[in-house]
């Protein structure tokens, strides 16, 4: 039995005994699988001035995490105290629902070789291999309790990026094991968040291998990107839009966008101007930020009727980015996930920003 009595943010630091029969139980460290190769970046001498680039670019090709093992062998049961203070026993990981705003949990589970245990998803878990699984949220990221219970999960992993809390309580009250996590959800927290999730499902050694690989790919990506970023960094803002109505925000540091923008060598103009979390993207705010380029989620730009619809929003057309129609989109389920594919995402985003013709 593995005993983890701790909050969900420090699971990686907990220890216990195992029930044998797995690579972890034998004390043998899992070997990290070779991940998909990061894209090659061009010779800096061949790059155009990024401020002369115009039009919409789209990050593509991120794909899914390569599993670190094809034969995961969880050490169960696991006993833990989750982030809400509930004592939970995890003794069955055959039917998992892993639900969060960013789709990070399903990516990590796939990286741990647990794809076949995932039985449902949120709209952010848009990996191709999960496309046919039922979505158990409605209206964006509100948990549909009935849809969850119909799937008969053996374990629900969730955090408070989705809800409401009452829905999580209802699932717990009918006897489904529920583990509420409290992820760091930052670049610096990639390793810890992966290790925490791996600890919950009894795969600490495989999680360590995935964490090490993910951090190494991120660090390599940052070093690569430095070779192609201009001396005068691009000024960027992350816009969040849903439809042509009132859902139109500038995301800030607390939303994770600063780390994304800084990772590709840019300046986050929202943070520079004191915007820490989602703030209305009105004409006054956009004029003050005046970015060179907008970063958006792919479906967000689509929902505004594309670039032409976006330019009809007050203030957008008056910015440098608007005048150049310069928007780069990122897949919704990848944009702010900060998980196993962060390095790959950053390199592909950098290519769209600085060298789109080299792809």
UniProtKB/TrEMBL annotation:
InterPro entries: ABC_Transporter_SBP, ABC_transptr_periplasmic_BD
Fe/B12 periplasmic-binding domain boundaries: 97-357
One Pfam family matching this protein: Peripla_BP_2
SUPFAM superfamilies assigned to the protein according to its UniProt record, in alphabetical order: Helical backbone' metal receptor
Region (Disordered): 16-48
Record field: transmembrane: none
Source organism, top-level taxon: Bacteria
Family: Belongs to the bacterial solute-binding protein 8 family.
Protein name: ABC transporter substrate-binding protein
Organism name: Corynebacterium pygosceleis
């Amino acid at each position: 039995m593995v005993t983890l009595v701790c909050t969900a943010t420090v699971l990686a630091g907990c220890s216990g005994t195992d029930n044998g029969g797995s690579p972890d139980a034998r004390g043998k460290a899992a070997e990290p699988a070779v991940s998909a190769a990061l894209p090659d970046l061009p010779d800096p001498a061949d790059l155009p001035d990024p401020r002369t680039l115009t039009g919409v670019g789209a990050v593509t090709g991120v794909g899914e995490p390569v599993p670190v093992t094809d034969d995961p062998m969880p050490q169960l049961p696991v006993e833990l105290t989750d982030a809400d203070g509930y004592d939970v026993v995890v003794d069955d990981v055959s039917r998992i629902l892993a639900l969060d705003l960013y789709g990070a949990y399903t990516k990590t589970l796939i990286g741990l070789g647990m794809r076949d245990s995932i039985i449902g998803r949120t709209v952010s878990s848009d990996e191709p291999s999960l496309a046919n699984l039922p979505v158990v949220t409605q209206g964006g990221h509100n948990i549909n309790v009935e849809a969850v219970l119909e799937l008969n999960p053996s374990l629900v992993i969730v955090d408070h990026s989705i809800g409401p809390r009452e829905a999580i309580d209802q699932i717990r009250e009918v006897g489904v094991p529920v583990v509420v996590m409290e992820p760091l959800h930052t670049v610096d927290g990639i390793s810890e968040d992966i290790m925490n999730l791996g600890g919950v499902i009894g795969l600490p050694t495989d999680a360590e291998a995935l964490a090490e690989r993910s951090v190494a790919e991120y660090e390599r990506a940052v070093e690569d990107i430095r070779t192609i970023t201009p001396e005068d960094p691009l000024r960027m803002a992350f816009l969040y839009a849903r439809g042509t109505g009132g859902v139109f925000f500038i995301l800030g540091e607390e939303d994770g966008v600063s780390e994304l923008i800084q990772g590709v060598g840019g300046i986050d103009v929202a943070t520079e101007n004191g915007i820490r979390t989602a703030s209305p993207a009105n004409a006054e705010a956009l004029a003050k930020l005046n970015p060179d380029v907008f970063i958006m989620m792919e479906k967000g730009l689509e929902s505004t009727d594309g670039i032409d619809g976006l330019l009809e929003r007050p203030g957008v057309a008056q910015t440098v980015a608007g005048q150049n129609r310069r928007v780069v989109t990122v897949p919704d389920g990848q944009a702010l996930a900060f998980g196993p594919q962060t390095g790959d995402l950053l390199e592909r985003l950098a290519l769209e920003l600085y060298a789109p013709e080299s792809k």
